[in-house]
Amino acid sequence: MKAIKKMVVAGVLGAFAMVASNASAVVLGPNLIANGGDFESGTTSGWNADAAITLSVSNDTPDASSYSLKGTMTPQGGVNYGMSHLVDSHTFGGNYYLDFDFKLIGGGSFYANVVPNSGSAFADFVSGSAGAWHHYSYGPIAAPLGATSWAYVGIYPLNTGEFYIDNYSLRQEVVPEPASMALFGLPALAMCLRRRRK
User: Fold this and answer.
1) Residue ranges, the chain, pLDDT below 70
2) How does 172-182 read in b/e, with b if 16+ C-beta sit within 10 Å?
3) Residue 116 forms beta bridges with which residues?
4) Which of 29, 108, 191, 195 has its CA 20 to 30 A from that of 170?
5) What's the domain range around 141?
6) Within 10 Å of residue 83's Cβ, how many Cβ atoms?
7) What single DSSP character describes residue 34?
8) Rounded distance, CA 143 to CA 130, Å?
9) How many domains does the chain have?
10) Please, which residues bridge with residue 68 across strands?
11) Distances from the Cα of 65 to the Cαs of 56, 103, 104, 127, 178, in angstroms?
């Protein structure tokens, strides 16, 4: 009987350990920037820009991919302009993670934005040494209370004439269901029952 109790305790502790380890590892869903995150289509499809920014694709990339997004800014009396991409439809809520590679020519900086259809937007100041590729990663970004969707994500360049963006992604954190977590304890429970019948 003592052996069975020990096995039950071990099984429960093992299940909790597996739940804890899975909780610490963030699982992300698909990229919500479909047809516009890696620019391998060779077009700027899906991306919109204000009149001060001209968008095109470039062969200047941070990896072995073929294309990146190139933006060229025209001075407009010191007014800041930006570019954005609509977010694909999905079940809204929870936490999100933003990732992309960027390169600035001639210095400058920009803001990375994630804008909901209502409530406060996320904005983070981004900069890096000129002429080199850098990686930007931020998360979690919590979905604002009262909002029902992300209206768009984008970047807003500041004092830069030319910039490049690649591997742009906004992903939603996937939270495992309690029922699936409970499955971790089933093997130990089955072993206990088998031992008890013997």
Assistant:
1) 1-24, 75-80, 177-198
2) bbeeeeeeeee
3) 150
4) 108
5) 27-176
6) 23
7) T
8) 33
9) 1
10) 58
11) 16, 15, 19, 23, 39
2-24 and 186-197 helices, crossing angle to 10°: 170
Main-chain dihedrals φ then ψ at residue 14, nearest 5 degrees: -65, -40
CATH value at residue 162: 2.60.120.260
Q: How are beta strands 122-127 and 83-86 bridged, if at all?
A: unpaired
pLDDT of residue 44: 94
In a domain, residue 94? The reply is: yes
Phi, psi angle pair for 194, to nearest 5° = -65, -40
Q: Closest Cα partner for 150 from 109, 181, 119?
A: 119
Locate all alpha helices (DSSP H) within the chain, ordered by sequence: 2-24, 178-182, 186-197
- Nearest CA among 166, 168, 165 for reference residue 110: 165
In angstroms, the CA 119 to CA 144 distance is: 6
171 token code pair:
């992903």
pLDDT tens-digit map of 5-33: 444 444 544 544 444 444 468 999 999 99
Measure CA of the first residue to CA of the last residue in the chain; give whole Å: 12
Residue 191 lies in a domain: no
